[in-house]
Design brief:
The chain is α/β, with parallel strands linked by helices. The protein is 41% helix and 14% strand. Strand 2, helix 6 and strand 3 form a beta-alpha-beta unit. The chain starts with 5 loop residues before the first helix and ends with a helix.
Length: 398
């Protein structure tokens, strides 16, 4: 069964995550096959020519395509409701391709200022080296997006919820501005996960994921995904990927195919755990603020209610004492481990100001809401009572 089948289109998302895109070999395997091969052979020279002209369907070379990777791409496209998907070696490879491929020297990109450190590097440092102008705006200010548009604006880029402050942007409103400007909107949906937010349904043109996070979800493999309309994905983006080579390993693709089968179970339970932990933190005396997409006091609670179906698995909270207080708390955690990763089955905690956002000046971090006392907590699959107990004794050290 493939995602293009009429039957597949009528299936529930959970079923698509188990079956969509599966291609079986002559051996009739139950689990998807791992095609760990660099290249493919052809029956004759004419067939080889046809493969490179794309007039003969089939596979050519591992940098261009692979059967296992193709199954992952088709399954994710079926789940996301996208016409096409391309996989990359990492999440940042996906972001870079999605933002860079559609632009040329002299074009203009508008992006939200609240971004993961590496994402902001692509916009703020990398693109201008190649003659692409960029503007950073306060993402929650819809009028700022409109005012930033220029005649040469080609791409809007945002992440929502943002890393690490969980700022939620109005994707539908921003998409309307992008469309009116003739620009494409690229949304990094990694924090929301494809389970809880559907950017394409809200008007976005391209969605990117670090599949390293919730999609793998068990701390094993790096990967990225780019999804959108066929014309966009199979145009500039596919050409960029073919020529520059950020190819996903077939082994990593196989691992992620198996992970997709359990994505609703894992992420659903993690979000349930996160809600319990966030409620406990909000009632605790030590954190001065708790940011969670499931709380009614979230600054963008109204937008969340409109565009997200769940709170995701991330919590951000502020502890007193700045960096020293945050360090005391992190170092005191026994069950929750310090790591800059997220979306894992294991709960992970990090101090963004000195890790994911350390390259920014204190002034830029302050403008992004990344204070010295802010910590980001990614909730896993442990029992929530055990996580709460660990946080309780760690917060006592602050």
């Amino acid at each position: 069964m493939s995602a293009s089948d009429n039957v597949a289109a009528r299936l529930h998302p959970e079923t698509r995550l188990v079956h969509a895109g599966t291609m079986r070999s002559q051996f009739g395997e139950t689990s998807e096959a791992l095609f760990l091969t660099q290249g493919h052979v052809y029956d004759n020279a004419a067939q080889a020519e046809g493969r490179f002209l794309n007039t003969d369907p089939g596979f050519q070379y591992g940098r261009l395509s692979n059967p296992t990777v193709a199954m992952l791409e088709e399954r994710m496209a079926a789940f996301e409701g996208a016409e096409a998907c391309r996989a990359t070696a990492t999440g940042m490879a996906a972001v870079t391709a999605a933002v860079m491929a559609p632009v040329r020297a002299g074009d203009h990109v508008v992006a939200a200022s609240a971004l993961f450190g590496s994402c902001r590097y692509i916009v703020e440092d990398h693109l201008p080296r190649y003659g692409v102008e960029t503007t950073l705006v306060e993402g929650t200010d819809i009028e700022a997006w409109r005012k930033a548009v220029r005649p040469n604006t080609k791409v809007f880029f945002l992440e929502s919820p943002s890393n690490p402050t969980l700022e939620v942007l109005d994707i539908a409103a921003i998409a309307k501005i992008a469309k009116a400007a003739g620009a494409i909107l690229v949304v990094d949906n990694v924090f929301a996960t494809p389970l809880f937010q559907r950017p394409l349904d809200l008007g976005a043109d391209v969605v990117v994921y670090s599949a390293t996070k919730h999609i793998d979800g068990q701390g094993r493999c790096l990967g990225g995904l780019i999804l959108g309309a066929k014309a966009l994905i199979e145009g500039d983006i596919q050409q960029y990927l073919r020529q520059t080579g950020p190819a996903l390993s077939p082994f990593n693709a196989w691992v992620m195919l198996k992970s997709l089968e359990t994505l609703p179970l894992r992420v659903g339970k993690q979000a349930e755990n996160a809600a319990k932990v966030a409620d406990w933190l909000a009632a605790h005396a030590v954190p001065s603020r708790v940011i969670f997409c499931g709380h009614s006091n979230h600054p963008q609670a109204e937008i969340i209610a409109r565009q997200m179906s769940g709170p995701s698995t991330l919590i951000a909270f502020e502890v007193p004492g700045g960096k020293a207080g945050a360090y005391r708390m992190l170092d005191a955690c026994r069950l929750i481990r310090i790591s800059n990763n997220l979306g894992d089955a294991k709960s992970l905690i990090v101090h963004p100001a000195t890790t994911t956002h350390q390259r920014f000046t204190p002034e830029v971090r302050a403008a992004m809401g990344v204070t010295d006392g802010l910590v980001r907590l990614s909730i896993g699959l442990e029992h929530p009572d055990d996580l709460i107990a660990d946080l309780e004794q760690a917060l006592a050290k602050v």
